[in-house]
């Protein structure tokens, strides 16, 4: 554990040195993320000027939902997204050989090699939106609810990571994964705008089980709103456990396939 933390710190130090040379990496990521965040808030403000609720959720709950999904995404963008984003290209062009020949676990190196501090201010902005949403609720927030919320946000961030890796691991077995990446590019923004409580039928199966984007922000929001059920909490924890287990085994299978193909 201590060794891994030293490696992460070393990779972060290298990234910061690079960003001092290419400052656009910092400010570019910050302005892009912030612009998307502001546009989403403006859109929901416009919607709530015409309706009282969405799927039974009042404005306070929707603000928490937006802030929570933005928080999960901001943690993702800051820590691992820019490291794992290019995995399909590295697989297709054989660049993964560089990671395999190193003593460090390839997935660990890919995950933490491109930490992007430019996205970190959005973490604070997202927390502020969540706090504003809480102030709009007509219910009391307890310390226990806050602790469970933080725990679930961390779990949902792990689930976000799991889904990202699983989708990119498909590249080990196909010639081109561009269609899968386009699927992610379209479904993720949609689920950042639509709370999971709205989904029914096949869409609920899709976004609660197959690609569980629908629970990532919905479950933490329900915790603060006081509407979460024990079954819902257990289900979300079980989904994270199963996806993490599947992600790891699927990645290992892909790595074995890659090594046999490259040889």
From TrEMBL:
Transmembrane intervals: 21-42, 62-85, 115-134, 146-175, 196-216, 228-251
Protein origin, superkingdom: Bacteria
Keywords: Membrane, Transmembrane, Transmembrane helix
A Pfam short name: ABC2_membrane_6
Protein name stated in the entry: ABC transporter permease
